[in-house]
Amino acid sequence: MNDRPTLVAESQPVATRVDPVTAAVIHGALENIAIEMGHKLMRMSYSSIIRESEDFGAALTDAEGGQLCECKMSTPLQSGPIPGYIRGVKRRLAARGETIREGDIIMHNDAYAGASHGPDVAFCVPVFLDGQLIGFSVTTAHHLDIGASSPGSAGIVDAVDSYAEGLQFKAIKVYEEGRPNAAVWHLLRDNLRASDLVVGDMEAQIKAAQIGAERFLALVRQYGLDTVMLAYQDLMDYSERLMRNAIRALPDGDYSAETTIDGYLDDPDAKRRDLKIKATLRVRGDEIEVDLTGTSPQVDDRPINLPFEGTVDCAVWLTLRSILLDSAVYGDVPQNGGLTRPIRIVAPKGTLPNPTFPAPVIARFCPGNALADTVMKALANCVPEQVSAGIGNLRCIAFTGLHEGKHWVHMEILEGSYGGRYGMDGMDAVDTLYANTRNNPIEDIESHLPIRVNRYELRDHPPAKGKWRGGIGSVREFTFLSNGAFSVEGEGHKYRPWGFSGGEQGSTSSLLHLRAAGDEAQMPSKVPYHGADATDRLLALGPNGGGYGDPFERDPEAVLNDMLDGYLSTEQARADYGVVIIGKSVDDPATRALRASALR
Amino acid sequence: MKSIGVDVGGTFTDLIYCDLDTGSLEINKVPTTPDDPSKGVMEGIHGLLAKVGRKPDEIDFVFHATTTATNAVLEHKGAEAGMITNEGFRDILHIGRHQRVEHYSIRQELPWQSRPLIKRRNRMVVGGRLRPPHGEEIEPLDEDAVRRGAQALKEAGVQSVAICFLFSYLNPAHEDRAREIVAEILPDAFVTTSSFVSPQFREFERFTTAALAAFIGPKVRTYITHLEASLKAAGISGDLRIMASNGGVATAGMVSEKPTLTLLSGLAAGVLAGAWLGEIARRRKLITFDIGGTSADIGIIVDGKLAETDSRSTSIAGFPLLSPMIDIHTIGAGGGSIAHIDRGGAFRVGPRSAGAAPGPAAYGRGGAEPTVTDANLVLGRLDAHDFLGGGMKLDVDAARRAVDGLATKLGLGLNETAEGILTVINANMANAIRSRTIQKGIDPRGFSLVAFGGGGPLQGADVAAMLEIPEVIVPPYPGITSAMGLLTTDFKYDAVRTAFEVSGAVDLAKLNRSLGQMEAGLVARFEADRIALDHVKFSRSGDLRYVGQGYELRVPLPEGEIAEANLPQVWEAFHAAHAGEYGHAFPANPIEIVNIRVSGVGLVPKLARPAAPPGGSLAKAKVRTSPCVFRVGGKLQSFETTFYHRRDLPVEEAFPGPAIILQTDSTTLVPPGASAEVDQTGNIIITLGAAQ
């Protein structure tokens, strides 16, 4: 097999609308604007979910919501949905007979009209040139609290419908023609917990979006609207061409895979547990259809349904581009609507990936990443050298409490890990697939919150065996220093990440609540608001990703290194990999003999 | 006083001699000797001394910028290092911020996992724990475990050890004690602690900085010791001063203890030279613009002050680095940047570079892809027979062939393509300057662009025009400006400490005590390095943020005992800095002092204002005229362009563009519509025309 996929039409120029020099200059300028927006948002914002975890997005769009550029620092699941937010905003406004005016700023979080889910609130600044709407500058960010039934915006796993998830903003003008809509801001302050932080973050979002709008306008004034828009269409064509070329290089055929997610493991209702995700990829020429038929029906009254627009589409697109146009191999490819043109997604109405309003969706993060993993698993049969074995999924814990009558809310995203890859081991303890957030420094957490971190390192469980081993998950332990509560949305407590091509399955994650009183309780992967006393501890073991290939083919030196680094014992090296280690070196003849005898 | 500056680069070692009393200058350039850079350094010094007819013992100071540390990290060739850290936290270096480098990639590598600075097998854990807010001990240090860990590291044969405990920035006691124990067991190892290297919060970044120190420490120490010995052996008894990334120099002893100080050594010298040149040209606002073969380095100077990076924006080879550092923005755009059509059919220039080998097609060393240098040659902006003072002949036909190949693919003409290459690379550079000016609320239209390096004077005027910067300053020796910068430095030692004080509840006694201790620490350091304190100036600053934010901005703190009445000015300064940086302030919100900083600057005699050049005449300087292609008013046109020899130009006599000015180490372009003149200190000042 080829080391690298070859592309058709490599290094051939193509007919463009704008001369290549001007196009290159405008593309650079657009990218620069998006980076500036993200940079400023990240630095101005208050809550750690934005500034440390980088769970935000920033992008410019045209007047219809087509994405011109996105900020490279932002997390994919935030910038990706922005075109959908704008389409949703326009739809909602049109339905109410409202028009967009210069100086308006529009707030939106409607998961049934483009938003990724309720906590991811967008602020959209329309851009006008001489009275004509030419586009939008948009920032999105995950907010700490959105006024749901219990504190925090993660782990609201018992919301029974869209109304229970918190406030719904369906294209609300927080500024009208330059004037703040005071009533809306009062409503926000009165209905959101930790409102100083949340409103501060919203203000930062608005400022960053306004800067984007100013820069966009300056660019259009410099080069002319037509030239900028034509250059942008060229840019979309460019991304589309790359994607089509990559798809064309795949053998035509149907590739499918199925995985299972926990759902609500402790729920007596079987409809809420052990849910199927199925993906069939139909590759035809330079297009792919991703068919999710066969995935479980929606869960009517639990929020693990996936908004089709905003979550499902992004999960599919991002996975396909990460595999087919892997940036470590291909370099930067501009993220825009062109990339998605050759991809069609099908999900029957009323299923997990295409729920019907008001089915709740707020806790869609983990099932969405499982969907991404399933798409990768289907593609593994087509491009085995470009995928990883099964990923360990993420989990999110919200810690909350009251201090002097005010809420504190802290969200921790617990990392997963990657499966082994062709020629490479899996990445250890890292965010996976469609999320790419950052952890919070222990020294920041303990300086600002009544939480102590007792442990944060790789877990002791040996990695999944393989020619290229799976990544290793983390272990984290927290102590509550005052009375409070936690809630959890996670996956992977029951189902192990898939092994590939002879590699071993990964291992599940778990969460243990160790109470001050001395008893302990294994928690399922979804925990609604759950009280905790001072000195209670939470012990979270993260998942190990799946192994790739036959472990008896693993390079003995790599096995030795794993032993020296404490991932394996000498006995495991021998039994699991057929590698004989004496002291600190490999006994080559004994290893050859052992491996040969294992073949017989 | 006689000083020598030595700047070791990838290809050449640049040297400069200056007699600070008479102002006389001499330069020398020798090939770098990568295996042992001190060889090239010594050869260069001998050559330089011969040129000026001085004896080794007449030299008072040798100022040196070294890439030893940088290369060790970039090539991942450092020491076998060990670590002692908290029980339960063995893998902070390995997990990092649990974020991938690339969003859209399955096959990426994480530098901290695939090339660890300290392998897991060498990371030993011990009991002992501190907590905020003051570093109170909640579990005593397990000294026996430290001993066992050190013993294990000794058996593993490590050359260095980093000791890294949580919250050590609040209280270094556990780290200091562990260091003593480790030093007893490993007396020859390089041992450092995270609180010594950089006492700031965020454990991954601080531990990584300590790990970097352990990784490069033995190599830097060996190199410096070896160089000092070579200098002594050659009879040079003057002191060796090493350029640090913070824009000051340090003694050899200081650098041996804190090797991370030198990670951006060479780049810092260039910006300093720019600052000095601006000062003697009486300009207050400068953008330094240094273009080499593969990269462009950009620095900003306002009122003689260099912008420093904040503590979250510095990294090397993918590893975060908490070390005071001049804010230098580097992009992959230089003379060797290759123009190409990428896989999707788009026209791109760089970041891939032809480097020194094979180099641009015009070098005739086998390079076939068109580069920025080739584009300049095709357009007539370089002299094929007078490149590097005639030291190198350029192959015009090879350059044309390379550019023409691309032109055919693009369906453009030869000149259009060549000019397009320059437009794209200049736009990339202009974007880089924008990110450090306009995006931070600084208007570049009031600045001067100081253009140097081999390529800066050639691109400077076009880049300035894109940003509406009114003038470009080209220093006398653009190609050795960094070495010159070495002779304009002062001693600069920094102290930093995390404070976490919130407006309305500032513990003034603690704040004053901390600042006092930090100043006392610096005084002790200067005294230990035998630097006279009457030449030392201290300044204070703080890294502040609104409570809840995660990024800080630097503002000055008052001198002397800080009282309640002094605080409002600090808060005001922060609101103003926030508004400047982000375009908005939140005046009602409480503010947190995150870090406090003290800088001690020990003044060192500097390069004097250069004497006015002898001055010739335009007639004498004129080499010839020949056609060059420029885009003016949107149209490509050929202009009869005058070529001059720089050494013969008259002083303070303006001449119009288009003109090309030749000299040994660079070529300067004065575009049509602009004018240029040599000033009293030998700089060329290009004034850009109103319409470009």
From TrEMBL, chain A:
Ranges of residues in domain Hydantoinase B/oxoprolinase: 19-551
Transmembrane segments: none
Superkingdom field: Bacteria
GO cellular component: cytosol
GO terms (BP aspect): glutathione metabolic process
Name of a matching Pfam family: Hydantoinase_B
Protein name from the UniProt record: N-methylhydantoinase B
Gene Ontology molecular functions: 5-oxoprolinase (ATP-hydrolyzing) activity
From TrEMBL, chain B:
InterPro entries on file: ATPase_NBD, Hydant_A_N, Hydantoinase_A, Oxoprolinase-like
Domain Hydantoinase A/oxoprolinase: 206-493
One GO CC annotation: cytosol
Gene Ontology terms for molecular function: 5-oxoprolinase (ATP-hydrolyzing) activity
GO biological process: one example: glutathione metabolic process
Residues in Hydantoinase/oxoprolinase N-terminal domain copies: 4-185
Descriptive protein name: N-methylhydantoinase A
Originating organism: Roseiarcus fermentans
